[in-house]
Amino acid sequence: MNESEARHMFAIVDADQDGVITLKEWFDYASKTGKLAMFEELKSVDTDGSATVTQEEFVKHYAKS
Prior knowledge:
Elements: H1 3-13, E1 20-22, H2 23-33, H3 36-40, H4 42-45, E2 52-54, H5 55-62
Antiparallel strand pairs: 1-2
């Protein structure tokens, strides 16, 4: 996905639109969409180890140049 698509996907997963994806939001999205493998990616996306994913972390991980 490109950067724009990654930002759009982030907005979908960030259910409360607070600018970070929590573990609960990540799990809820993965469960709802059947993309449970995505749940396993959390550690590699959360580069600062905060147990949340910022838009910057999400886009950096998923956007392909």
